[in-house]
Specification:
The chain is about 15% helix and about 35% strand. Strands 12, 14, 15, 17, 18, 20, 22 and 24 form an eight-stranded parallel β-sheet that branches. Strands 1-2-3-4 form a four-stranded mixed β-sheet. A four-stranded parallel β-sheet has the order 16-19-21-23. The protein folds into three domains: about 10-50, Seminal Fluid Protein  PDC-109 (Domain B) (Ribbon), CATH 2.10.10; about 80-145, no CATH class; about 145-335, no CATH class. The longest helix is centred in the C-terminal third of the chain and has 18 residues, at about 235-250. The radius of gyration is 46 Å and the shape is rod-shaped. The protein is mainly beta and about 325 residues long. The protein has helices at about 15, 130-145, 165-175, 235-250, and strands at about 10, 30, 35-40, 50, 75-80, 80, 90-95, 100-105, 115, 125-130, 145-150, 150-155, 175-180, 185, 190-195, 200, 210, 255, 260-265, 270-280, 295, 300-310, 315, 320-335.
């Protein structure tokens, strides 16, 4: 049977189909000379197209459900990216720059995470925390933020102090533990500091905490040199005022309490020293007589302190307290 010649309608894309008044009939063939594409008419203005080895332009296969190619070859590059880079070694492909990629594996530089199958060559990558490293990190974090392993000098009250007052300093200490290598010295500035409340100090490591004033201006007066004119209320109050003047001549730091204030020290305290405690002599807001300094339930070292003018006792050591060392303390209270 002799070969037969089949003639396609041909021309450029805009001439073959959808030219005004021209629509390919059903099964009528057309060929576009500009983009080398075969058209098969279906009686519509948008007939099917067949891609050839020389076709150019875009083809959309959105209506195709599934396509199976036997022995199809992968393109050497996509958008200028050399796909062979994805098969150099085992690992996860990571973009390292514009159109550049590399294989990477998961690592834990400090060993805090244990990684199973880090290159992903079989099964899933598995991450677990290293319990030894994790516990060490927790301990280190605790030591850096909560433990005190050195001697710290912290100023309280006064300009540019570390703490604006004792309550702020005590609150900070409650968040800390002090090791046997540590010590915290709460240091008051020279001058008169007025406190209008009762203070409470307690800390499980109080034996590593000191409260101290500025160095004395001069030696404390000998007990025999203090004024004692008599035992009547008027005489005793006169003696208090005279002796207060002498104390102020020696002490650089005076902590004066008003409105029934004072300080309760409950538990151990390493040292309290070089502070003159004074009061306006008023009872508590509820009318109860108050002591100036109350030491309870611990061991204390007291050095060069004095309490003058409190409503009841200037310095009180309650049950369970033990003074391990005493150097020159005085207590005078108002005679009512």
């Amino acid at each position: 049977m002799p070969l037969e010649r089949i003639i396609f309608r041909y021309g450029i894309d805009s001439q073959v189909n959808n030219t005004p008044g021209v629509v390919l009939d059903v099964a009528e063939a057309g060929f576009t000379t500009d983009n080398k594409t075969v058209w098969i008419g279906d009686g519509t203005t948008n007939p099917p197209r067949l891609m050839t080895t020389k076709s150019t332009g875009d083809f959309t296969y959105s209506s195709i459900g599934k396509v199976v190619f036997a022995g199809a070859l992968q393109a050497a590059s996509v958008n200028g990216v050399d796909l062979s880079l994805f098969n150099i070694s085992n690992g996860f492909v990571t973009r390292t720059g514009d159109k550049t990629f590399a294989e990477r594996t998961f690592i834990s530089s400090n060993g805090s995470i244990v990684i199973g199958n880090p290159a992903g060559t079989s099964g899933n990558v598995d991450f677990t925390l290293n319990p030894t490293v994790l516990s060490n990190q927790i301990i280190n974090t605790y030591n850096q933020n909560f433990a005190i392993n050195e001697i710290l000098n912290k100023t309280v009250y006064g300009a540019n102090a570390d703490f604006v007052d004792f309550p702020a300093a005590f609150a900070w200490l409650t968040q800390k533990t002090i090791s046997t290598q540590g010590m915290v010295n709460l240091i008051l500035p020279a001058g008169t500091i007025t406190v209008n409340k009762r203070l409470n100090f307690t800390h499980p490591n109080g034996d590593r905490i000191t409260i101290r004033g500025a160095p004395l201006k001069s030696a404390l007066p000998a007990i025999g040199s203090l004024q004692r004119t008599g035992s009547s209320p008027a005489q005793r109050n006169s003696d208090i005022q005279a002796n207060l003047i002498r104390m102020r001549a020696s002490y650089s730091t005076e902590l004066t309490f008003i409105n029934g204030g004072g300080i309760d020290i409950n538990g151990n305290l390493n040292i309290i020293k070089d502070i003159l405690f004074t009061s306006d002599g008023l009872p508590s807001p509820g009318g109860t007589n108050v002591d100036g300094l109350v030491f309870a339930n611990g061991f204390f070292t007291v050095q060069r302190i004095a309490a003058v003018g409190f409503n009841f006792r200037g310095i009180s050591f309650s049950y369970g307290s033990s003074v391990t060392s005493v150097e020159s303390f005085f207590s005078f209270w108002t005679w009512i």
